Amino acid sequence: MAHGIIGRLASLELPLWQVLLLGGAAFLIGRRAQTGSALEPEPEPKPEPKSEPDSLAPTTREHLRLARREGTKLVLVVRTDLAMGGAEVAAQCAQATLECYRQAQQAAPGVLGVWGHEGQAKVTVKCRGEDEIARLEVRAREAGLVAHLSASSSGSARTVLGVGPGPISVINSVTGSLKLY
């Protein structure tokens, strides 16, 4: 039957404008059947909220200015005195990264946006023990950076400190002396 209809349509001699008009009408009818409205526009993606520097705290405003100028990164500080296996280190680093991201959504959305736009640079460094990682957390918070200290699954040991995302110079002022993991 379809071949018969196509054959009949092919034998008709219609001007091009009529073919285009009929094709457009068929398209709109089909679209209306699918969506409920023939002329309903496609939904536009919502723009990402822009953080207004005037509404930010002075430290956050300065961090956003620096982030735009010099770039951003997130540093993961891993304790080496615990002799964690590779899977445990990876899990703790993932947890610290996720918690830093969540905190940055609230505390530093502009810096988080710059970090996301630049490819989310992450650097893993090592520290010697719990005292050092605790001091680094305090220094990070004093510098106005997002910081999260992850604990082992048993909760008995603090294992990985996430610092940032933040401006490279500010993060380096806290973690720049540490060696790569």
UniProtKB/TrEMBL annotation:
Enzyme Commission number, as recorded: 3.1.1.29
Keywords carried by this UniProt record: Hydrolase
Molecular function in Gene Ontology: peptidyl-tRNA hydrolase activity
Keyword Transport (UniProt): no
Catalytic activity line of the entry: an N-acyl-L-alpha-aminoacyl-tRNA + H2O = an N-acyl-L-amino acid + a tRNA + H(+)
Residue ranges, annotated region (Disordered): 36-58
GO CC annotations on file: cytosol
InterPro entries named in the record: Pep_tRNA_hydro_II_dom_sf, PTH2
Compositionally biased spans, kind Basic and acidic residues: 43-53
Short name of any one Pfam family annotated for the protein: PTH2
Tree of life domain: Eukaryota
Stated family: Belongs to the PTH2 family.
Family matches, as PANTHER family: PEPTIDYL-TRNA HYDROLASE 2, PEPTIDYL-TRNA HYDROLASE 2, MITOCHONDRIAL
Protein name: peptidyl-tRNA hydrolase
Species, as recorded: Coemansia javaensis
